[in-house]
Structures are given as structure tokens and as C-alpha cells.
Design goal:
The structure is a homodimer. Chain A has one domain. Helix content of chain A is about 75%, strand content about 5%. A two-stranded antiparallel ribbon of chain A has the order 1-2. In chain A, helix 1 packs antiparallel against helix 2 and helix 1 runs antiparallel to helix 4. At the A-B interface, helix 3 and helix 4 of A face helix 3 and helix 4 of B.
Chain lengths: ~160, ~160
């Protein structure tokens, strides 16, 4: 019974991770805004920034992985590999979030030493969408961290007794 | 005998991680350059950029952790915790590298859409030092990934047979 509860808990976590990373991918892909300053029209989208593109690609990969893992039969030998795969997936996700967050921070606050001006004043909607995508990605990363620590605990537990 | 070889291999890896993260910390802290353009004098240092500061702090934390772990007695019960700690440390490291790399990329190439100009033309020495720090941090992250996959393998191996 305890094993069954644990399995349901894991599946729920993986569903949450899937939802979070799919949302992050979609919100990032649809982030786009056109703003006009004087007589010029400016167009921003996520694909202009390599870090945001990387974030989107990473989230898409993690979404596919999260989906595939749901169809893995409970008795499959492949589950032994999943712990290692989870670690790699979580690292990809954290790397994507950190890179996108670093750039989003410059977009919000600018960096006066480098002469980079903030752009969120002009592109309010775009900035909000990127923030949303980052938050969704962050939830995905936290869920994967919990899954990994849970796996490590489950594997070590019989050895601890 | 195989166990002894494995232990030496792990200690060597941890020494390498220590060396890499200490180097990354020191190279990042000492990155500093003054350049004059027309009659103005510009001063760049790592602490002007939050992402570089974060990278330095993360590497300092990982250095301390890598050093402490070397003094943990081989029979200590704490070794069971080390797998989980290694995962968290590796994630911190990858997060720091990704954030710093995203900013370093803008420093090198700029982002014409956001109007952020590259600064590496003026600050050649600074850029090279940041690149060096990133490379050292990257080596540290790879070593931690190997350590984690090795631990997972070692723990799962008896279960696989």
C-alpha cells in the first residue's frame, strides 16, 4: 500500500513537471511585442536572444522526456537508468533557467557599467511573459530536484536500515 | 583491491574539482581592467555584474565543500548524505556557469535587438580572464557530474546483479 501511494505521488510529480515545462515552452515561444518609439517600430521576440532560445529548447526537451517517462511500464528495467537521466534533465533545466534569468535581469535593470539599458520600460508585455516562462521553468526544476532526492532516498533507504 | 582503486579515483576527481573551482574563484575575483576612451577612464570588474558575482560566490561555496569532503573519514555515516549534497552542489555550479556564460556572451557579441553593445573590444584582458574563470568552472561541473553518475552506478550496481 505504501508502495502504491509512493508511485501515485511520483506520477503526480512527473505530471506537474510536464505541465510546468510545457507551459514554460509555450509562454516563451509566444512572447512577442511590437512597440513604436517616435516614428520607429521596434519588434522584440524571444528568438532574438540566444539565452531565451536555449531556455525554450531545454524546456521542449524536458517536456518530451517528461511525457515519454509517463508511458514507461512500472516493471521496466529502464527505471534504473531514470535516476541518472533525471539528474541530467534537471541540470539542463537549471542551466536554461539560469542563463535566461541572467539576461532577463539585464533587460529589467540594465547594466550601467557596460552601458546596457533596461528594455522592460518599452516592452512591458514581453517582459511579463518572459517572467511567466521563467517561473514555470523554475517549478519544473524544483519538481525534478524533489524527484531526484526522492530516488536517492529510496535507493539508500534499504541500505540505511 | 578494486575498492581501493575506486577510492583513489574518487579522491583524485574531488581534488580536481577543488582545484578547478578554486581557480575559477580566484581568476574571477582578480578580473579587473581600466581602459581609457577619449579622455574618459572606464573601469570594469566582475562585481559590477550580478551574474559574475553569483558565479564567484557559487565557486567559493563549492570550493569549501570540495575541501571539507576530503577530510571526511572513509567509514563515516555522512557518506550516505554526500550523494544528495553532490547533486545540489553540481546544480549550484551549473547554474552559476550558465548565468555567467549568458552575460559573457552578450559582452562578447552584444545584442543588437536590445541595443546592448559588445564590450570585449575595449576590455580584452577582462574578457579573457572571465573566459578562463568560466572554463575552470566548467571543468568543476563536469567532474561533479562524473562523481554523481559514478555514485548512482555504484549504488545501483549491487541491485542490478
Amino acid at each position: 500500500m505504501a508502495k502504491f501511494t509512493k508511485r501515485v505521488f511520483t506520477i503526480l510529480l512527473r505530471l506537474l513537471a510536464l505541465a510546468a515545462t510545457v507551459s514554460a515552452t509555450i509562454v516563451m515561444i509566444t512572447s512577442h511585442e511590437t512597440s513604436s518609439l517616435l516614428s520607429f517600430s521596434f519588434d522584440v521576440k524571444y528568438s532574438n536572444t540566444p539565452a531565451f532560445k536555449y531556455f525554450m529548447i531545454v524546456n521542449a526537451i524536458v517536456s518530451v522526456y517528461s511525457l515519454l517517462i509517463l508511458f514507461l511500464p512500472p516493471k521496466s528495467q529502464l527505471w534504473r537508468l531514470v535516476v541518472a537521466l533525471d539528474v541530467i534533465i534537471a541540470m539542463l533545466l537549471i542551466s536554461g533557467i539560469s542563463a535566461a534569468l541572467a539576461i532577463a535581469y539585464v533587460g529589467k535593470k540594465g547594466n550601467s557599467y557596460a552601458g546596457w539599458l533596461p528594455i522592460c520600460g518599452q516592452f512591458h508585455k514581453f517582459c511579463n511573459q518572459v517572467t511567466g516562462a521563467l517561473a514555470a521553468g523554475f517549478i519544473g526544476a524544483i519538481v525534478y530536484l524533489v524527484l531526484i532526492l526522492n530516488s536517492i532516498h529510496a535507493v539508500l533507504n534499504p541500505l540505511l536500515v
